[in-house]
Amino acid sequence: FAGFRNFLLASARYDHGAGGAGVRGSDAIYGGHSHVGTMIYLGDNWPDEYRGRLFTHNLGGHQINQQINKPLGSGYDTVHAGRDMLFCTDPKYVAVDLQYGPDGAVYFIDWYDQQHCHNPNTERWDRSNGRIYRMQWQATYKPVKVNLTKSNQLELVELLWHKNEWYARMAQRLLAEHARTPDWNPKTVADLFVLTEHHPDPTKRLRGLWTLHSGEGISEKFALQLLSDPDEFVRGWSIQLSTEDKKPSSELIAEFVRLAKTDPSPVVRRYLASAIQRMHGDHRWQIAEALVQHTEDANDRNLPFLLWHGLAPFVSQDIDRAFALGKETMIPQIADWIHWFAATQEGAALNRVVSSLDGLDSEALHRRLAGLWLAMEPRANVPMPKAWQSVAPALYASSQPQVQRLAERLAAAFGDDTAFPRLRETLADTKADRATRDHAFAVLSRAQDRASLPSFLKLLDDAPFRTAAISLLARFDAPEISAALVQRFGEFKPADRSVTLDALTARPTYAVALLDAVSAGKVARDQLTAFHITRLTNLKSAEVDKRVAATWGRILQTPAEKQSQIVKLEKVFNEAPLWAYSANAGKQHFQKLCVPCHRFGNEGTRLGPELTGAGKHGVRYFLENVIDPDAVIGTDFQAITVETKDDETITGLLANETPSAITLRTTAGEPVIAKTNIKTRSLGQKSLMPEGLLDPLSEREKIELLKFLTTN
Predict the structure, then answer these.
(1) Pairing of β 661-665 and β 649-657
(2) Is 212 exposed, middle or buried (0-12, 13-18, 19+ CB in 10 A)?
(3) Considering the chain, what percentage of its residues have pLDDT values greater than 90?
(4) 570-710: which CATH topology?
(5) Whole-model pTM above 0.90?
(6) Which residues pair with 71 in a beta bridge?
(7) Which pLDDT value is given to residue 679?
(8) In the chain, where are the structural domains located?
(9) From the CB of residue 63, how many other CB atoms can be counted at a distance below 10 Å?
């Protein structure tokens, strides 16, 4: 449902690039996509070719990117100019902001620090340095001394015409301050009205309008007059300023509706769409109903989104009118989003969306089903809509694979098991297309169909599905599952063993089976890391705790012990002849201990912080976070522990929440958990990173792991 994935296209064009703390930038790809500070140059010192261009500091590349802004529909596109204004080879150069001044030159500031991104430890920042620079066009540069507070009001009005926007903006601010004093000159107001009404340059007319508005405001009569201005931006700003009080008169509303129907400018329609949220009752619907008739706006990068954001807060208040608008709109996305929103309301509204599937052409049907699935995907225990039974058979039998598969996903959400027998056959067919089997598995696993349990158990011997099947089986409480996992544990590859341990530490009955296997020597004790021990203690089972204590003894360390361990291991690492230690061996330790939670390159899970490129922070960074993981916990990494009514304990990060369900990001995937099945839910005060993660490693293995982390 790509329509919901909006982003700033220009920024996305920059790759991750080079650069970073202590690393040189690269002008080959314009530095990277982390930017700080933005300026559109409107000064008068640099040559005119730079006027109106966007300049921004590229943090990782240590340079100033230059962009050309081009009108595109209701807004702008911005493309790289092909060369940048500045490239600094000093890796400690970290620019912050930039502005042009009264002399037309550009001033920018930095701080001077090798560390400049992604570190919550404030003591690592060097706050003692900082510099200011001036970039001038030498051929025309002239220093100036300015004190506009000494200018009278009429002189300030004249500055609104100045080529250097710095003067115009300062004058505008000072005139707004004068407007609130007894010395406010009627001649000033008259001059501003003349400027706004008659100056041939629309930029100057806008400066007059902004100054009048920020001073004593503009009358409704004048606003109505400006709505007929030949320039689209003057008309647009008149809409914006006349709705700031959120009380536009009926006369203004009538003019807005006329513009919404007939104005040829997408810019004006953008201002109207933005103003919908400032209106009340019937007014917002009138304007929206006019704007959605513009077929030419369907592919605009802004208007469909602005229209939707204007309407969305009010759709639930008049769902009938929303459905009517969705039926009449010439912008397909609006209809899609209205039906998506209605589906999230469940009940009668959801049933109405399902009913609307009948009779749609193939393209509209696919979009409508995609929106319906988007609404249902994060929900659980949704009662099956009455209309589903009548429309589903045709969808299941559709000749379009995309339609059929979306319908089967919805079957899982609605608890319609009529399609499941065929999907079980597909899943069991090892000769079937892999994508088809993947889909069957996804539907049956989402439904948590107990009748499919024998099929899921068979997947333990089906290599392509083994990992996913192990994770899924943890969601069921059946003794044959733990028995099957323990029996096959020794045959599994390391990655599947890790997932199996996650499954066997998810509920008390499975944990007992696992610990019995450890005691019997069927599962090696060192296969369980600190992560798994933490999961076992989170089960809050007396029987499990007793067995853990008997096998592992005292687990927790004091803060002093942790700091001592950090200092000791840092010293050992720094004094070790690293040439004699294998980073490849360290990678193997990483895959066993870290991949379940962290991404590194193309490997791992996005549960903890990304570790790609983190080696630049040095060995201390890793030791502090691994040995004392609870010292600093970002809010994005606070774990939630859920105990379900069927005795499963799930710990992870909150990925999504709806009125009926929560989705947790875990080492085993992203399960959707019905709120009606939650016994307890708690926000942890500890990091997901377990203590004692390095304990199973020998000193040599620890150095190998740290070498791998710090050299990649």
Answers:
(1) antiparallel
(2) buried
(3) 61
(4) SH3 type barrels. (2.30.30)
(5) no
(6) 76
(7) 92
(8) 2-135, 424-552, 570-710
(9) 25
